[in-house]
Specification:
Blueprint: H1 8-42, H2 44-49, H3 51-61, H4 63-81, H5 86-127, H6 134-169, H7 178-183, H8 187-190, H9 196-210
Helix pairs in contact: 1-3, 1-4, 1-6, 3-5, 4-5, 5-6, 5-9
Amino acid sequence: MNDTSPQTEPIAGFLTHLEPIKERVRGALDWASETTRALPRIDPAIARKMRSQIGRLLTAAQVRDNFDQRISHVEAALERSMTLSPAERGAVETVIARQLVEISEVLGKTSTELAAAFRAISDLAASTDLAVDPSSLEEVSTLAANGLGAAKDLASAGEVLGAEAAGHFGMIDSSLAPQEIQEANLDWMFELYTMDEERNVHRLAIAQAGAA
């Protein structure tokens, strides 16, 4: 018999709520990548002038793969948790809540980096003394303006992710003893991870639950 108890509903609901957040994050980070490709096409001299800013955008854009991997691990763990006992499910949710908080913080920091890079590009386009076509500078200014919008949307998506996590995982069964969470077998969950930061967050979540 399928488990259709109310305990599974918040988890299923959270999986649905992740979809628009994922799209917003990917859209913002993809814009950073697109800008790094667009600047050399617009004018190589402009791209050379903005080499430092392009480097910052490339670094920020790399967060997309990190985000996709970590969110896929969250989704896999959530889906499996629906078939687990209440104690094991509570342990999984405890870890995931911590993972999502950390992911939202990464998105917040990345949005700040993006905004700074795009502001610098905008300023350079407005003040550059390069002998380039004014229409090229205008195109760069438009890229930067859209980039600032993308950075703002990334920050908002991170905030929404943190708030959604707090809302859904505030429903974790408060009757669970810290010892139950610590003793839950989450080896399968640990094996999902591909990054040390995920493993560190997992260990911290369990340790803090045990100290509660």
